Amino acid sequence: MTSEALKAACLALAGSEETFPFNPETSVFKAGGKVFAISALGAVPLRVSLKCDPDLAVRLRAEHPAITGGWHLNKRHWNTVLIDGSVPQTLLLEMIEDSYDLIVAQLPRRQQLLLDWPGAGRPEGG
Fold first, then answer.
1. Quick check: keyword DNA-binding in the entry (predicted)?
2. Which terminus of the chain is more solvent-facing, meaning fewer CB atoms within 10 Å of its CB: N or C?
3. Sequence-distant (≥ 6) Cβ neighbours of residue 65 within 8 angstroms
4. Domain map of the chain by residue range?
């Protein structure tokens, strides 16, 4: 996956935005003001840090050497993925979406509905 494809995958999620709170080189992708992905898109090798369910995070690290505990982040809840081709792109895309879902799940229901997030549930007839 290229840096352009990574950026596009993050920005394709409803309500996501790219911010630069740390420096101009580090993209921080947020939804509802909450961070779900961090990457220095110009870095070689390319890496991305993603929020992850703690049990799944441990399992992914055991199965993929390119997935490690979040660099400079809470390693219980964040993984950093080295994008070197060893992690299947479909898995990486799922990890991005899972990270987004974990963040959006913490938002108030009203914000979830504004994002048209499937996990918010809609009232009958709504």
1. yes
2. C
3. 86
4. 3-116
